Amino acid sequence: MSRILMILTSHNQLGDTGRKTGFWLEEFAAPYYVFCDAGHDVTLASPRGGQPPIDPTSSLPQMQTDATRRFDVDEQAKRALATTTPLSEVDIATFDAVFYPGGHGPLWDLVDDPTSQQIILDSDVVGRPLGLVCHAPGVLHTVKKHDGTLFVTDRSVTGFTDGEEEAAGLTGVVPFLVEDSLKQAGARYSKGPDGDSYVVTDKTLVTGQNPASSAATAQRLLDLLCVRV
Description:
Elements (H helix, E strand, L loop, with lengths): L2 E5 L17 H13 L3 E6 L19 H7 L2 H8 L2 E2 L10 E4 L13 H13 L3 E4 L22 E2 L4 H7 L9 H7 L3 E2 L9 E4 L2 E4 L5 H15 L1
Parallel strand pairs: 1-2, 1-4, 2-3, 4-5, 5-9, 6-7
Antiparallel strand pairs: 8-9
Helix pairs in contact: 1-2, 1-7
């Protein structure tokens, strides 16, 4: 059994629209059950601790999947989500892998959270598998290594596409576009068709393009974890 840290957003405001945001439910639920069903111990954390906000759009009936429906009746998982550990209290050295669910929230808080950035850097140095899906890979574009170079420069990654953001009608709302930010940071960005599952692995870094990629990204992380162990 390995210990996996899942880091969720604490941000719940969709820019100045007056609408709510947070993490995307499928992007949490599917990886959570991939990890738990494989017998691993999962710890949930967020910048503020406690209950992280769920993007209300991801709770709409048409957005539900087998994983979200399973979560809906899983009282133990709900209790774990309601009591996430404050990120500042996490000892990353005690974990074997890290996973970031997406949703729009991370574009506002995790993108410049110093503790999150240090976890990303430390994990990369020691070869701790690191997974991010959908909007979450966008937080990588601001991370700088100790020599001042950008973390994602010359790294192969994917993430929510400009086309997918346009389809969501939020191109003019988000603080930056995931695809553009990664390209501008010098990453080797690639993508599959909008809406389809697409996962990229670069050494111990795994990124998924969109909600459809959630389970596959989590499984790829487990594959790396098995190799490391």
